[in-house]
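Schema walk-through. Below, the input block comes first and the output block second. Nothing else is stored per chain. Lengths vary across the set, and this one has 252 residues.
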Amino acid sequence: MSWKMIALDLDGTLLDRNGNISDENAEWVRKAQTSGMNVVLVSGRHRIRMAPVIEKLDLRLPVITTNGCEIWSAEGHLLDRNVLPWKDVEIVNLFAFQHNVNYRAYCAEGVFDSDRSQHLAQMDYSWLKVLLKSDNRRSLSEAYERLHATNRLELTTYGSPGEPQQIDVQPKGTGKAAALGKLCGMLGIRKEEVVAFGDDRNDIEMLRWAGLGIAMGNAPDDVKAAADTVAPSYLESGVGRTIARIMRHATA
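--- output ---
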């Protein structure tokens, strides 16, 4: 197969848990780009927090941010954005307060942590996603069940099944796979020509969607089950080692 794009999650995939990229990963990402492959970052991070990685690797293609809610060009131009409708912002904020759950809210301008003196819907921002978090897993589970029952939102849980530690809340129909599909349409690339790497539950649909979905060795079992194959963990520079193998096979 002639692969035309490599889609890379960041934390726990390309980067370690401290946000650093290994020399081996950086080397092979650069080699892939130099060889003509399209290298795209696909992250739950806000674009501001992705900038150092883009600069370090000298990436030239658009990036997908906030779990697929935005696509930005390498030059910093917005290509696509999906925001939470105000009614949904009201619902999320209400449930967070009722269940005593903290949140981290993402908008175009930046990231805001819980401030109970202000209501999200009363702040003049376009909200992209909200990360709910709590040490009280029962409260978080109850919040999840109520949000899920609305059938208005995309929800991704992190932690043990049935006992989430965090919940990503974002607009209906959004996600890494959906955004990657849009970007491939812009670039004239078929999904069968895409290799995707990921390590967590917000990567599952992307791994299923891509022509070759690769889960990291440090990924939960359900993420590995969604992938076509499993790479070594980020501790072993699994991205770099796997890209090296893909490129060697392409020239064999």
